[in-house]
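User:
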Amino acid sequence: MKKVIQELLKHWQNCSPSPKGRLKLTPPRNSFIFSKFEIMSELLTKPETMVDIYRLLPEGTPVQVINNHLYMSPAPNVPHFRIVSSLSDQFRRIVRESGLGEVFFAPVDVYLGDKNAIQPDVFYISNENAHIIKEDAVYGSPDLIVEVLSPGNKKADLVKKKAIYEEFGIKEYFIVNPADRSVITYYLENKTYIEQKLQKGKLISKLLNAEIAF
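Assistant: Predicted structure:
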């Protein structure tokens, strides 16, 4: 995938404007790139951010954009999958019964500004914010996000995503470590995350007035 992105960037740099002011893309000889983008129009605006490039990648590509940098997303291992499955089922039941909104789980794109395209493991959107849900993705801040750590994404979830979620006003952020079932909890207060008491095997959501065990 890195090779695909590198060839795309190199090709765009060599493109010349069309009469309409847009870039005319002609597949490079012996290139494998456009076999992956056969449904793309021949006329494309030259990408300005990594999010623009992300939108051109084949559906299902395991990549996220954080602060205008592309990060490969490792496939979830079995403990990760089990926890995400359990949490998403419980969140969906609670929200469905209460009628408070809607729950989603990866891989659904969440666009935060023009430099972030993230796929949270589990997230909740209240009825108040339902307008951010579109057919192709979510454009705006969910009310609550849960990320389950994987060996290859700990720094992204613990540091990079935390900073982004705080900046974009995610009200509750939970980080679950499958290794010991510990849960780091952040509640947003006055635009700043306040870390709560470490939990084991459960999430406590003030927004949903619920305790969710796994």
